[in-house]
């Protein structure tokens, strides 16, 4: 699977409520922890990212993930991407919907691509 397919797989897993923590590098043996920025969170390190994603999967449902501008560049064992994504979900009986911007980096280890950084922000105009 290439980096683009991994990103699209992540989107599909989000839509279907499947586990997301397996998409991220396990950095427990590294000096530099991975970072995941969500719309309202900043998670640093594998343990924090994995726990945050497990909590998100458990507390949300009915995800809509509409990718509009996915661009991926892949080089040997590293890839980076950007996208404009419409996100919507249900949480505690409340519907949330945002136009978001995504960017991130992936690393290939043992043939598989994993996120080493992910940033999701709300797209607003001034």
UniProtKB/TrEMBL annotation:
It holds the Pfam family SnoaL_3. Coiled coil: none annotated. InterPro entries: NTF2-like_dom_sf, SnoaL-like. Residues 5-124 form the SnoaL-like domain. This is Nuclear transport factor 2 family protein.
